[in-house]
């Protein structure tokens, strides 16, 4: 999702960015078309591309992601996992930039996925959070992980 980089580029956490821009964070998390269209407009992103990579809440605990109907437990775990090699590469690509260069990949969200598609490294727990808004405020969490520059 484009939300993390655009929030970081503006020096705010993801939830704060949503509030400032009038985007209900829960609508973003649920992949509501109106919220995604507004984000696409703000980030100059193709709305269909953004929608295709955003899980969409259908009903009860059912979601649609990339044309597949899945139960929420398959993609909305309370523990967010990721590939340390990918995140390291993100950080190294722009060492003087804010955390906006580090991002969560969509395939990391699926419970059955255990390896990074690029590095074949096991996915590791990055953080655990029961509160959905705090769980998906990836900008704040990735900022905590970003290596500090040596001065």
Q: Helix and strand layout, with pairings?
A:
Layout: H1 3-9, H2 14-20, H3 25-29, H4 33-43, H5 47-52, E1 56-59, E2 62-65, E3 68-71, H6 72-75, E4 79-82, H7 84-93, E5 124-128, H8 132-135, H9 138-145
Antiparallel strand pairs: 1-2, 2-3, 4-5
Helix pairs in contact: 1-2
Describe this structure in words.
This protein has 151 residues and is α+β, with helices and mostly antiparallel strands. The protein is 41% helix and 14% strand. α1 packs across α2. It starts with a helix and ends in a 6-residue tail after the last helix. The mean pLDDT is 83.
Provide the descriptors you would attach to this structure in a database record:
alpha+beta; three-stranded antiparallel sheet
Summarize this entry quickly.
41% of the residues lie in helices and 14% in strands.
In the sheet with the most strands, the strands line up as 1-2-3
What Rg, in angstroms, do the CA atoms define? 15 Å
Could you give the count of β-strands? 5
Helix/strand structural class: alpha+beta
> How many helical elements?
9
Proportion of residues in helical segments? 40-55%
Most strands sheet: 3 strands, antiparallel
Low-confidence stretches: none
Give the N-to-C terminal Cα separation: 32 Å
**How are helices and strands ordered from N to C?**
HHHHHEEEHEHEHH
Q: How much β-strand is present in the residues?
A: 5-15%
Name the average pLDDT: 83
Shape: globular
């Amino acid at each position: 999702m484009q939300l993390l980089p655009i929030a970081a580029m503006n020096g705010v956490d993801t939830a704060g960015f949503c509030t400032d821009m009038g985007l209900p964070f829960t609508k973003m998390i649920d992949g509501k078309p109106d919220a995604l269209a507004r984000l696409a407009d703000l980030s100059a992103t193709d709305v269909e591309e953004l929608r295709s990579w955003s899980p969409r809440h259908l009903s009860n605990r059912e979601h649609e992601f990339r044309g597949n109907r899945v139960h929420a437990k398959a993609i909305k775990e309370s523990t967010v996992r990721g590939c340390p090699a990918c995140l390291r590469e993100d950080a190294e690509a722009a060492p003087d930039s804010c955390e906006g260069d580090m991002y969560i990949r969509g395939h990391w969200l699926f419970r059955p996925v255990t390896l990074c598609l690029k590095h074949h490294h096991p996915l590791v727990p990055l953080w655990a959070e029961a509160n959905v808004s705090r769980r998906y405020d990836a900008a704040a969490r990735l900022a905590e992980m970003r290596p500090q520059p040596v001065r």
